[in-house]
Design goal:
269 residues; mainly alpha; two-stranded parallel ribbon; 11 helices; 1% strand; globular
């Protein structure tokens, strides 16, 4: 299964289509996922489609289909507020709500923020539900605390998608905001973990400073060897000061919170 053909470069997409056509045999099976526009362009540039491939394109959800889905997610006897939401979807009487739930993402937002968290859905059929832009912004604003509420921590080894400790909604929003600004969707759809450190303005200079101090503090001005304890104390003191300054910088607007640690000799913490 090749998931995300559209997430690689345009030339690479074309080369992938060509390579698959050249290598797949009659007995091979493959599933390829992609956004429609990028897949269509790759096939046109390659000059031929994937041999024997069946193309499946999802259709928009109908208001009744969205209502049926939410009804399954709710209790056997939905509250009056939910009954009103379901009726509004089936009757198409709240345009913003109907348009938002025509996509899987919009329907998932409704379920996550309101159904799974047990929140009163009355706003969905009020003025907020009339405007799809306002409704989407509202749901995106509430999705982080809703997910944290509905996914409590777990220490069970098989709970791979549960946090190990209680998350803070504001801190989580700050971290995700930082990543979104460091890796804007207009430039990339990936967040490579090995490139996160390079987005911190002072990180590289701090690492170079630490390397220089580790080398330079080994000898004094006369070239004489310092004691191991003196070397450790001097290096640790400077590094603690630098890390503290770096933490204060990162805690600014859009930054991330870092708790510096005193690593000087004799400090048990």
């Amino acid at each position: 299964m090749l998931d995300g053909l559209d997430e690689i470069g345009e030339q690479a997409r074309t080369e992938t289509i060509t390579a698959l056509n050249a290598s797949l045999t009659a007995g091979d099976q493959v599933i390829l996922t992609s956004r429609t526009a990028e897949f269509t362009t790759a096939v046109a540039t390659a000059g031929r489609p994937l041999t024997g491939a069946a193309v499946i394109i999802p259709t928009q959800l109908t208001p009744k289909g969205a209502a049926d889905y939410l009804r399954v997610c709710l209790a056997a006897a939905p509250s009056d507020a939910w009954q009103k939401v379901l009726a509004a979807l089936e009757n198409h009487s709240v345009p913003g709500l109907a348009e938002l739930t025509s996509t899987p993402l919009g329907l998932w937002l409704i379920r996550t923020v309101y159904a799974d968290s047990g929140t009163n859905p009355t706003p969905l059929t009020g003025p907020l539900g009339e405007d799809i832009s306002a409704l989407r912004a509202h749901l995106l604003d509430q999705v982080i605390p809703a997910l944290i509420k509905t996914r409590p921590p777990s220490t069970q080894p098989d709970d791979h998608y549960r946090p190990r400790h209680r998350l803070d909604a504001n801190a989580t929003r700050r971290y995700l905001t930082y990543l979104a600004r460091a890796f804007p969707p207009a430039i990339t759809r990936d967040i490579p973990w090995w490139r996160v450190a390079a987005t911190l303005p002072h990180s590289r200079r701090t690492i170079r400073l630490a390397a220089g101090l580790a080398t330079g503090l080994g000898r004094d001005r006369a070239g004489r060897r310092r004691s191991t304890r003196d070397q450790a104390r001097g290096l640790a003191t400077v590094l603690t000061a630098r890390l503290t300054a770096m933490a204060r910088y990162l805690e600014g607007p859009g930054g991330i919170r870092v708790q510096p640690v005193d690593v000087r000799p004799g400090n048990a913490h």
